[in-house]
């Protein structure tokens, strides 16, 4: 199964950055999954908690409040934007298991403040069950749950 994470409409539930540089971010995330190629029908979208564990973590900018909706975001790995759709933002493959330069940039509603998580390593894991919302059918139709 292939998976993707979308910042838009995901909720930042937890953000912890320890003095030792270890930390994590937990999202109630907009997740796509497919037995075939992602975003080529048929595929499914829904909700699942995703935990990103960081090493060498630091936060740049001000986090106004947790439990906020991400209106946008991007992920850069070794300076390259990690995007499932060229020239689009906020949609990337899971799971992540990467060592190198990491930058996760988020824009949180309702104040639309932007902050970044910088790290030297990131790893992702799913938590809980996948909550199916939509099936994207081969014929172009969608089935809502």
What is the molecular shape?
Answer: globular
**Count of domain modules:** 1
Largest sheet: 6 strands, antiparallel, barrel
How many helices?
0
- Unreliable residue stretches: none
What number is the mean pLDDT?
93
Name the structural class. mainly beta
Strand order of the main beta sheet, please?
1-2-3-9-8-5
Distance between the termini: 20 Å
Proportion of beta-strand residues = over 45%
In sequence order, what are the helices and strands, one letter per element?
A: EEEEEEEEEE
Give the helix proportion (percent range): under 10%
Number of strands: 10
Query: What value does the Rg take, in angstroms?
Result: 15 Å
Describe this structure as you would to a colleague.
- By secondary structure, this protein is mainly β.
- It has one domain (2-144).
- Helix content is 0%, strand content 68%.
- It contains no helices and ten strands.
- It has strands at residues 2-17, 23-34, 43-55, 58-60, 68-77, 80-81, 91-94, 97-108, 113-136, 142-144.
- A six-stranded antiparallel beta barrel has the order 1-2-3-9-8-5.
- A hairpin with a 5-residue loop joins β9 (113-136) and β10.
- The two termini are 20 Å apart.
- The mean pLDDT is 93.
